[in-house]
Amino acid sequence: MLGRGLKRKLSDYEENMAGLSSAFDSSRNLSYPLKRQLVLNMCLTKLQTYKMLVEPNLHRSVLIANTVRQIQEEMRQESNQQPINVCPGITPSSHSYTGMESSGVSLQLPSGISQQESNCCDLRSVEDPIENSLLIVSDDDMSSAISSILKDLDFVEDISPPTCLVPTGDDQPKFAENTGLKLEDDRQDLKGAECVFGSFEISNSTSYLKDLAIDDIFEDIDTSMYDSDFCCPPLMPPRSPSLAAEEPLKTFPSCNSSSANNIQICRTDLSELDHIMEILVGS
Amino acid sequence: ADIISTVEFNHSGELLATGDKGGRVVIFQQEQENKSQSHSRGEYNVYSTFQSHEPEFDYLKSLEIEEKINKIRWLPQKNAAQFLLSTNDKTIKLWKISERDKRPEGYNLKEEDGRYRDPTTVTTLRVPVFRPMDLMVEASPRRIFANAHTYHINSISINSDYETYLSADDLRINLWHLEITDRSFNIVDIKPANMEELTEVITAAEFHPNSCNTFVYSSSKGTIRLCDMRASALCDRHSKLFEEPEDPSNRSFFSEIISSISDVKFSHSGRYMMTRDYLSVKIWDLNMENRPVETYQVHEYLRSKLCSLYENDCIFDKFECCWNGSDRQVGFMDIVMTGSYNNFFRMFDRNTKRDITLEASRENNKPRTVLKPRKVCASGKRKKDEISVDSLDFNKKILHTAWHPKENIIAVATTNNLYIFQDKTN
């Protein structure tokens, strides 16, 4: 008999998932709430995996986040009609599927939560192994999971501006005449702050960086956070909800505690970096 | 690295370009028709191969930029050279492909191999002449359009004015002039002020084939927006919104995911447009926004497998679709084509409402034999020659197909191979 807390190999996990999803598809033994829970867990697992990636796929993340929201909304409506006992404090990141195990739930849990969680799960019928393997996740945790993922995408993606409308006298009006376009200056103002990067052609001139000692350039930037050991297996050891929100921020250099501050700090660092680059490029 | 990621015929159909995951472009050229061999049109042979994009590293964000070619679009031919636009996730390049079949010979100061001659040995002067040489096809990058996209580019589309083109990423669409590389105009921006509010992304965009001020873009929520650039510089307000109300009987957890549109293509006349979502192809009349005029089921038997397909990520596969060529040789044809799994591809005849499933596979089809129609058995007893849903290979997907603009020749890309089929001529 497998004891509690036994770590399962990823391949076993995948097999179990495949078993669950084909059970879903053939509509065997699964009630609607269970199907819903299964889909929800799959969504959260995927989102968690994407969070691990340096560059998550925005399209997929949005689709999955929407699915989670939809399920969340449905569950919320149901619970408004009928109060259901929901176990709080379990984050989406804490899971390992037992599949068809009937010996109970084997999970990796932080010590503080395990008692609460196992109590909660004992309320459910022990006979149904699939039920036992699905966790109940609270609303708040789901919302914070989605928010943190989407916020990460913003931070990762949008450091450099998408466009830069540069009014240059002669060329512009001529072009505007030809196509009938009207330039909107206020749009440019919004992006003005970010346009500091606009003239800096990164992709064409990355080669010169290979010749320089990169460490020297970044010496004055605080990379203590970046040095921390961030190597997590796909099934992460669970953390309490408050830590889970902070985690994605840890992966970026020069990032400290909370959101808006971070971006300010990082933008300052980046503008310093930009200044250094300008000197190096001699532009 | 050999995974084919895009396929496109040029405007005459003489050239066929493919892009792959390794950033390479391979162009095939159709042989000139042999008058004596009227039973088959020219075959396609490799004409040119070049490395269009290299992997790049964005040092500021610590991200690797993939070299995979997402789209290729040809420009109409204006002179002896051919031009195409190819794009990866971040950078669009204009390539010139030109032929060289002559070279100058008889220089006075240089030997044939390039070494310089001792001037004192030159006793007579001659004029260099052009002599024929083996055909050499050269590709050179003429323009590089970079640094305008924060997110991944999914579409490029050349305007009917042949001067401008658009590029679309997940949240923005930019308008470029082919001659100008250091700036672009942002014409669509759906990024919310707060990324947490993001619920929809742009999945494809295309210019109208005739109206140079009109373009459409599709979204992950199954909607298509038509925009008119004359209305305002930033086309955040659409002129038309095409959306079909959801069928409540088909509702599932995956409804939104499978409604995401993976491709949008205007018909040659510009009167209709076709969209591809996960399970179907829809034809829309530009004059009617509330529902498509026709819907064709590509692989409805997958509807009961959505959870498994979600689990293995196949549900996110982006299938493309295409119309048949505009110059129809035999009768009035109106056929659309799209790919599926197990190396199957499907064609729907809009006139007869008939459809056919064919397979692109060397094992099951000998060259120069007529393709046998396939059938998938959704449930129940499987007939002979039918394939059951459970034995479909979901790793063998046909995402990219193209139709010759004038003839009944189609190009079908499996994961690693390109197949070219033509209709049977007697």
From TrEMBL, chain A:
Residue ranges occupied by any SERTA domain in the UniProt entry: 32-79
Signal peptide residues on this chain, from the entry's feature table: none
Coiled-coil region: none
Domain of life: Eukaryota
InterPro entries per record: E2F-SERTA_domain_protein (IPR052262), SERTA_dom (IPR009263)
Gene Ontology annotations for the cellular component aspect, listed alphabetically: nucleus
PANTHER family xrefs: CELL DIVISION CYCLE ASSOCIATED PROTEIN 4/SERTA DOMAIN-CONTAINING PROTEIN 2, SERTA DOMAIN-CONTAINING PROTEIN
Protein name in UniProt: SRTD2 protein
Organism encoding this protein: Piaya cayana (Common squirrel cuckoo)
From TrEMBL, chain B:
Domain of life: Eukaryota
Entry keyword Transit peptide: no
Coiled coil: none
SMART domains xrefs: WD40
Keywords on record: Repeat, WD repeat
GO molecular function: protein phosphatase regulator activity
Cellular component per GO, a single term: protein phosphatase type 2A complex
Annotated family: Belongs to the phosphatase 2A regulatory subunit B family.
Name this protein carries in UniProt: Serine/threonine-protein phosphatase 2A 55 kDa regulatory subunit B
Lineage: Eukaryota, Metazoa, Chordata, Craniata, Vertebrata
